[in-house]
Design brief:
Blueprint (H helix, E strand, L loop, with lengths): L19 H8 L2 H12 L6 E5 L5 H9 L4 E6 L2 H14 L4 E4 L12 E7 L7 H14 E12 L5 H10 L3 H7 L3 H7 L3 E11 L2 E9 L3
Helix pairs in contact: 2-3
Length: about 220
């Protein structure tokens, strides 16, 4: 008997999945903030890196192209976006491991990654699932390794406050706009949680965070 994985598809509805890449590319300056996240992660050539909730694989692919000697793994529960990710990697001629699974129950041994990256994933999770995901990230990171995140954050300008007000009724996003994410990450056992960047986009304000799994 198999258990069906529960998740929110890209853009909330499966029918919208084909629009995901174009929307992020043009409305959110996707490549700009994802390249910045990769630069901040400061990967080493032999590092093992997990892209948590990799979606269609844009961040995963950029990480592998930037650090070809790194061992890059992408995980997502949605088979449709994973198929798109595999196709993009094949077209680019790069070798990436793609796994199907949930952020709340990662299929990896303890202390098996040097970096975990997360882009626009956490706002899909309700608070208990988000805390479970943070616990899983802590578990699979090696001592001293880092967790790098880009996701919705507190609005700082009037236009961003307006966009945030439209999204705030969503339980999954409200904690992000209220600035609660750093404290929730610390509650999972991470240290040195710090903001490393900000981006305002047509779909809302983004914040970048870094956290360390202590040794």
């Amino acid at each position: 008997m198999t258990t069906k994985l529960k998740y929110i598809p890209a853009l909330g509805l499966r029918v919208l999945t084909p629009l995901y890449d174009p929307l992020l590319r043009w409305a959110m300056r996707e490549e700009t903030f994802k390249r910045r996240l990769i630069a901040l992660a400061d990967l080493g050539g032999g590092d093992r890196v997990l892209d948590l909730g990799c979606g269609t694989g844009t961040l995963t692919l950029l990480a592998k192209q930037t650090y070809p000697d790194a061992d890059i793994v992408g995980i997502d529960p949605d088979p449709e976006v994973l198929a798109r990710a595999r196709s993009k990697a094949a077209q680019a001629g790069v070798a990436i491991t793609w796994d199907k699974g949930l952020a709340t129950s990662l299929p990896y041994p303890d202390r098996s990654f040097d970096r975990v990256l997360s882009s626009l994933v956490l706002h899909h999770l309700k608070r208990p699932d988000r805390q479970a995901a943070f616990g899983e990230v802590w578990r699979v990171l090696r001592p001293g390794a880092e967790f790098h995140i880009v996701d919705f954050g507190p609005p700082r300008t009037l236009p961003m406050r307006f966009v945030a007000a439209l999204l705030r009724p969503l339980e999954e996003a409200s904690d992000h706009f209220d600035g609660l994410l750093p404290g929730q990450i610390e509650d999972a056992g991470f240290t040195s949680v710090a903001e490393t960047g900000r981006f305002d986009t047509a779909l809302g304000p983004l914040v970048m965070l870094r956290a360390v799994r202590p040794g």
